[in-house]
Design brief:
- By secondary structure, this protein is an alpha/beta fold.
- The two termini are 13 Å apart.
- The protein contains 10 helices and 9 strands.
- It has helices spanning 16-31, 46-56, 71-81, 89-97, 119-124, 160-166, 176-183, 202-212, 224-231, 234-237, and strands at 2-5, 36-40, 65-69, 109-112, 128-133, 150-155, 189-194, 216-220, 241-243.
Length: 244
């Protein structure tokens, strides 16, 4: 029996590397001229993937960029470090050569955004800065009206429902974008959408099933129509017993 995530149904997405390269290109533009980039993220998953992408992509290697992680997102990073031996081999290999997250020696630096830290210190540490923050984090912790352009990166519209479902409603209690704009009233604020899918699309899901060759396949987590679309694929119906 294979129980498999079906949130994307039969959608087809660009290859993951294409998604990452597009995001890196847009982020590079946002950081030009002492720019600031903000990524609102849930506690686990997306934020840690973004950190790994920024740390490992050749476009940012050696660049004088500070990546600040707010206290809530930092707890997610620490949780990942606690189960490092269970993470993919490529991640473990990376961690053998340099710290997975917290590193103030290798550029770009990844640093904790501590409560009580002077926002002037955060803003003046480097020419460019990226902030990985939970939407519940008050912008006063990391933002000030100091002139550079600000860009807020949010998942592409196809991913918004999944992204919002991961936000803990106990923390998600105010409009963080309006709050950010109120802290930096004279600084331009742009919005960028990006795709960094967190589940397989049609091709990835069907390939997984064919590789494992189960007798039964149970699709979970998607909307009823998305799961029905998956279960209606001829190449799956002909080989497996499908369940929603």
């Amino acid at each position: 029996v294979l129980i498999v995530e079906g949130s994307y149904g039969t959608e087809r997405h660009p290859h993951r590397k294409q998604q990452e390269n597009y995001l890196v290109e847009r982020l590079g533009d946002a950081l030009a001229n002492r720019g600031r980039a903000v990524f609102p993220v849930p506690l686990l998953g997306l934020g840690q993937e973004l950190l790994m992408l920024i740390r490992s992509h050749h476009h940012f290697t050696g660049q004088p960029i500070d990546v600040w992680v707010d206290p809530l997102s930092a707890t997610g990073c620490d949780a990942y470090l606690g189960c490092l031996s269970e993470l993919p081999e490529t991640v473990q290999n990376f961690a053998q050569h340099q710290p997975l997250f917290w590193d103030e020696r290798v550029l770009p630096r990844v640093r904790r955004l501590e409560r009580g830290m002077a926002v002037e210190t955060v803003a003046s540490e480097s020419d460019a800065a990226v902030f990985i923050v939970h939407p519940a984090t008050q912008p006063e912790l990391y933002a000030q009206d100091d002139g550079p352009d600000w860009t807020v990166f949010v998942p592409d519209l196809t991913d918004v429902a999944l992204w919002q479902s991961q936000l803990d409603t106990r923390y998600y209690q105010f409009d963080w974008l309006t709050a950010l704009q109120s802290v930096i009233p004279s600084a331009p604020v742009k919005m960028e959408h990006y795709m960094l899918t967190n589940h397989c699309d049609r091709g990835g899901t069907t390939q997984l099933i064919h590789n494992l060759r189960p007798q039964h396949v149970i699709f979970v987590h998607g909307k009823p129509q998305q799961l029905t679309d998956l279960a209606s694929l001829d190449d799956l119906q002909a080989r497996y017993q499908l369940h929603l």
